[in-house]
Amino acid sequence: MRKGIIVQKFGGTSVANPERIIGVAKRVAATKKKGYDVVVVVSALGGTTDELVDLAGRISKNPAEREMDMLLATGEQVSVALLAMALHELKQEAISLTGAQVGIVTDSSHTKARILDVSTQKLRKELRVGKVVIVAGFQGVNLDQEITTLGRGGSDMTAVALAKVLKAKMCEIYTDVKGVYTADPRIVKDARKLDSISYEEMLELASLGAKVMQARSMEVAGKFNVPMHVRSSFSKKKGTLITKEVRAMEDVLVRGVTAKKDEAKVTICDVPDKPGEASRIFELLAKADINVDMIVQNISRTKATDISFTVPNSDLKKTQEVVQKVIKTIGAKAVTYNKSIAKLSVVGIGMRSHSGVAAKMFKALAAKKVNIEMISTSEIKISCVIQKKDADKAVKAVHKSFGLEKKPKK
Ligand code: ADP
Ligand code: ASP
Ligand code: MG
Known about the structure:
The protein is an alpha/beta fold. It is built from twelve helices and 20 strands. It folds into two domains: 5-176, Acetylglutamate kinase-like (Carbamate kinase), CATH 3.40.1160.10; 247-410, VC0802-like (2-Layer Sandwich).
């Protein structure tokens, strides 16, 4: 009697060299022996995707996105084949498949494609004959048979999508840390591993810089309630469960602290203070498919005002082109761009019903003489734009001020 399906995803560092791939194969084979059907998702060998991006950059400053996907998808094809071989060595039947072979169908937005449909036919056929099925993460195929990729960190998305369509008992994310922590454990040494976190909080933390999970994958996991377990590739210990909001979680004010260092601040100075100007600027940015994040506009004491907003660094060039044109039409005086910023955020469902979180955060920053340039809040997060050089110091100070290193009382 089979016990059901488990999806196991292994990130780049977990398959960085032959020894680690053999280690992964042993873990997968052991799960299979316990009576589960196992679908494995693997990322490219550690560092490979970055190397491929770099390689493309040395040929072209502006490579076609279709060709980027052709290039980047090769990384995962290497790791799935090697893992299949490692399982064969252990006398475990296994087959490696690309996204296209599985039938992971996406839209056509190359380099950040969205999954439209996942066929389970081939997966089920191979599982039925006792094979471990190894799927290349991060890739799919559009309706024209063109290879697409799902955005950086996209193997998490592949794992979540497969777990959803196969109704897996668990989607296990194996990585190079022991779970989800109250802050990046590489920055905050006494960050605490969480036993559990809600989809909503994980989505916020991930969108705000905690790269342990791809943000988009958390949207899907939350929408379909996919049971998730983030844990270490190098240990057998329990990691962090990602689940629906549970009662005990509500008593905690702040779940975690994170910083995002890949955004730039744009300030348009002396925008005439009259209706329609902001609309004109942001409409053109939206048309150019630029992802504008925080926006701040102050009241004007004169007849003009400054508007600041942040965009991902990767969109800065496009933003500059749009903004240079728009300032001429609206008669704004000047524009400044600042890439040396970071966005610091605290996240927690408990904030919904508590006040004073912002005050505490600002006090911790003031004590470290960290200047706040922009602020934005939502129900479950507070973000501040600060200087990039202050980011690590600020994460540590805010983490400490909320006592996140200590286990909360239940
Ligand atoms: P993988 O290659 O396994 O997908 P990633 O590098 O994408 O791994 O994500 C794991 C990394 O995420 C960790 O090495 C850690 O430095 C970083 N990270 C950032 N914030 C957090 C957090 N709050 N909890 C755990 N890890 C975090
Ligand atoms: N290899 C891809 C990346 O580095 C996908 C992933 O690792 O999840 O972004
Ligand atoms: Mg990752």
